[in-house]
Amino acid sequence: xxxxxxxxxxxxxxxxxxxxxxxxxxxxxxxxxxxxxxxxxxxxxxxxxxxxxxxxxxxxxxxxxxxxxxxxxxxxxxxxxxxxxxxxxxxxxxxxxxxxxxxxxxxxxxxxxxxxxxxxxxxxxxxxxxxxxxxxxxxxxxxxxxxxxxxxxxxxxxxxxxxxxxxxxxxxxxxxxxxxxxxxxxxxxxxxxxxxxxxxxxxxxxxxxxxxxxxxxxxxxxxxxxxxxxxxxxxxxxxxxxxxxxxxxxxxxxxxxxxxxxxxxxxxxxxxxxxxxxxxxxxxxxxxxxxxxxxxxxxxxxxxxxxxxxxxxxxxxxxxxxxxxxxxxxxxxxxxxxxxxxxxxxxxxxxxxxxxxxxxxxxxxxxxxxxxxxxxxxxxxxxxxxxxxxxxxxxxxxxxxxxxxxxxxxxxxxxxxxxxxxxxxxxxxxxxxxxxxxxxxxxxxxxxxxxxxxxxxxxxxxxxxxxxxxxxxxxxxxxxxxxxxxxxxxxxxxxxxxx
Amino acid sequence: xxxxxxxxxxxxxxxxxxxxxxxxxxxxxxxxxxxxxxxxxxxxxxxxxxxxxxxxxxxxxxxxxxxxxxxxxxxxxxxxxxxxxxxxxxxxxxxxxxxxxxxxxxxxxxxxxxxxxxxxxxxxxxxxxxxxxxxxxxxxxxxxxxxxxxxxxxxxxxxxxxxxxxxxxxxxxxxxxxxxxxxxxxxxxxxxxxxxxxxxxxxxxxxxxxxxxxxxxxxxxxxxxxxxxxxxxxxxxxxxxxxxxxxxxxxxxxxxxxxxxxxxxxxxxxxxxxxxxxxxxxxxxxxxxxxxxxxxxxxxxxxxxxxxxxxxxxxxxxxxxxxxxxxxxxxxxxxxxxxxxxxxxxxxxxxxxxxxxxxxxxxxxxxxxxxxxxxxxxxxxxxxxxxxxxxxxxxxxxxxxxxxxxxxxxxxxxxxxxxxxxxxxxxxxxxxxxxxxxxxxxxxxxxxxxxxxxxxxxxxxxxxxxxxxxxxxxxxxxxxxxxxxxxxxxxxxxxxxxxxxxxxxxxxxxxxxxxxxxxxxxxxxxxxxxxxxxxxxxxxxxxxxxxxxxxxxxxxxxxxxxxxxxxxxxxxxxxxxxxxxxxxxxxxxxxxxxxxxxxxxxxxxxxxxxxxxxxxxxxxxxxxxxxxxxxxxxxxx
Lengths: 499, 637
Fold this sequence. Notes:
The structure holds 2 protein chains of 2 kinds.
Chain A: H1 2-19, H2 25-48, E1 58-66, E2 71-77, H3 79-97, H4 111-130, H5 134-155, H6 160-188, H7 196-202, H8 209-226, H9 235-242, H10 245-270, H11 272-298, H12 303-326, H13 332-367, H14 383-396, H15 403-418, H16 420-426, H17 428-445, H18 461-479, H19 482-497
Antiparallel strand pairs in A: 1-2
Helix pairs in contact in A: 1-2, 1-4, 2-3, 2-4, 3-4, 3-10, 3-13, 3-18, 3-19, 4-5, 4-10, 5-6, 5-10, 6-8, 6-9, 7-10, 8-10, 9-12, 10-12, 10-13, 11-12, 11-17, 12-13, 12-15, 12-17, 13-14, 13-15, 13-18, 13-19, 14-17, 14-18, 15-16, 15-18
Chain B: H1 5-22, H2 27-50, E1 54-57, E2 63-66, H3 70-93, H4 99-117, H5 121-139, H6 146-177, H7 190-207, H8 215-220, H9 225-234, H10 236-247, H11 257-278, H12 282-302, H13 306-334, H14 349-363, H15 369-384, H16 386-411, H17 426-441, H18 448-458, H19 467-490, H20 498-504, H21 509-608, H22 613-632
Antiparallel strand pairs in B: 1-2
Helix pairs in contact in B: 1-2, 1-4, 2-3, 2-4, 3-4, 3-9, 3-13, 3-17, 4-5, 5-6, 6-7, 7-10, 9-12, 9-13, 10-12, 10-13, 11-12, 11-16, 11-20, 12-13, 12-15, 12-16, 13-14, 13-15, 13-17, 14-16, 14-17, 15-16, 16-19
């Protein structure tokens, strides 16, 4: 019941905001914040009620829907889903609370629709992580595309319609491949059913063969476009640049996680033997994403594009951890470490890059410019902004004591035990990431203040509060990660060891 | 009591120091900073006395452990002790607001302690990376200066490249043993142990600014003088050497490690010494000297005597920190660090005296403690090979030359008439004087009782000292001093020869390091251009093509449907016209034709009624005949 409430409350809030007339902008925002906070509270409550040593899926609810096809309303979480869903709820709350891009325009009359779409997107995104039914998974996976399409298309800047269309077409094409894979999984059972737990237990495609390979390809193709993995990543940069700040935060913080979460939930859990055969290939693709993403980010002059490419780099680490977890090796401890690391990277990256994109939104609100050469010397003008950006940037480059290190260290330690060369090359990623972030900080905040930035205002109270909450989360996960690790470790042990 | 309080106390005190500094004053912030470090020192002393441990489990595999060993005790005590005068200096030398500077320096002390006390590679890595971050933050203290922030990036990136080695080493240990503790190093199988050793060596090389990573230390000189004193002389650079000293017994099975350490150390000592000879920037001279002196410590570790190296680290920490603070004072007087502009002897006589003591320690002149430690290094080098001992002695001679050059250039007799009064305050005197006094106090090392106490306390093995070796080395030192005086008398080297110019750039390592960074950025830019121009354009082209195809299909679809609609409309029109022009007339022409025929038939019928009987008879007969014929032919029809 808690999980159903967690994703239904935002949906109800969205309907309320969309169809009840006469919302003021601040009223709509407060309604959005309250609903999002309630949803987050549900997930935190679920967290407290979660038993790390218990069965894989907990808080399960099953309501029969169409028994003849095998579709039912099934929700349930394991440690990985719970961690990612809670992080998503927190990022949504932060994005809704953050001042929306207005850029000097007068209060937008359709602000309530913006918050309605945000809550709709929150509902569908949380549902992706919470459902245990493949068909529902696919439905919510695609509905989230709809939500993001409208958020970018209607409230974006630059060339929003084109970016939104590219984003939608590309990821939707991927999800069609995903659908083929799902149908393949569905049909492979003796009595076809969409129940994820059934497929995980029975492992119908354990013999492998061409059919299993094709299903695996379909699933991975769809998920690789969502993650995104090089070379299927080209929808990401423009979508990020043209989206409003909070929407970018959600795109990077939540939507990208659907791809990697899907990789854990679908191929890893349901097709372990096939994944094992192709684990090295996936690992190499992940390595390419790591290095290519970091290098291209280094070469960007546009602030938002730079951070967009670091998302590709970080998701590369996650996929590397997942590939190692799927690989053929008898070092179970290493594989479990890699999977735990991949999940912590999902959580950490959500908070970190979410905060970074919110900061980008703050920059755009004040100047309308993303070009790094436009800025400089802001450390004295906006010390709080500087301090928070430094914190989040160091978290992103993997500084110990902050969230990113816990994840990346585990991924490297696990990868080296299985694929040593991949690990040796992958660590170069954190070096390049360090370079690009320090360069970013230098160009934004250090040096001399140009004349046109004389009126640059410091962060306002709301921005400070939201970013500090995210920053606090990042520090807590970095310094005291055991509350997160104990929830995830149980799930990764069962997923790895359950063979 | 847990050992965690030692690293955590300064880290938690740092925000308080930052806040107290924001109010603007220097007194409270400096006082708080000194208090914090004094507290750390006493905590370390207590920890040593009571053998504290520390343990923090993240989960079942990732466990952070802290502990002390006999050698690490000295280092753990030395770091806060060295930090005390430096913090005092920083508080009264740098311009307010000082909150950030002092807070990060204190936090750095905590991170350094974490590194020293670590008992496993994960904790080590945490402390290792944190000191790198503190270094970046401190070097970019003067962030308005365009160069400073760029140099800070260089220091962070070069040292982080070495850190990657530690990541891999930790991963290798985990792969071989399932844990990260130092104790697991000795039990690894050969391949993994080689990897771990290589990773650790790489990390140590980068952090200790050994060849070929020495250029970052030059870049780090953009930071304030107290920062250079604390980080880049006494502590952060020591981390690399400390790591090797700590782990050397566990890695004894790796055959190539010790020789590699010796080669790297000796190369750095000799080349660094030559660089210092020709450097005209006071801080960079000291930076190259730092690399060189750590090279000597590396030689000692490679020879198998980490204890000796640690004693030299202690002595070096005191005198090098003091020398850096002296350059800070000098810079305040003249506005730059150029040695050619200095000659401040008559303006700052007391500082000149302190500096003289420190410079003599750098030169290695007995009976200063630093000289004894250096001689110990020569002795242990001799145990490996006489040539090595000679090399070390030569490096010592080189340091004598440039130490003398430094001292005389800074405080020699000047031809200027001294007009202005010195800009110096009591805290700076106290700080420099304190370090000079500590350097003097270390002269007890020459005392045999102290030596045996050290041996007992540190577990140092007895080293055979050869008197002739000692004499030779001291002769080299004295020669060096004389050469240094001669160099100064002749005037500053005017960099006429190209080898001098190259040496001043750390034998081209400075441009090389910058070049690697620039190449990587250029690679990133071209990949970015490729991504935008090729890949994104391909995607957009695909989208555009899809849109165009869709539009085209829509148009053709429209045309077909339209055509059929129009076709049906026009066929209906045609049918209507046809009906109107042909149908209608046809439809009334048919009945009228029929009625015409009937009329005609009626006319004929009337015509048959002639009234003539013979016509009626003829008709009946013909009809009768036709009937007969039909009846006769009945069957056939």
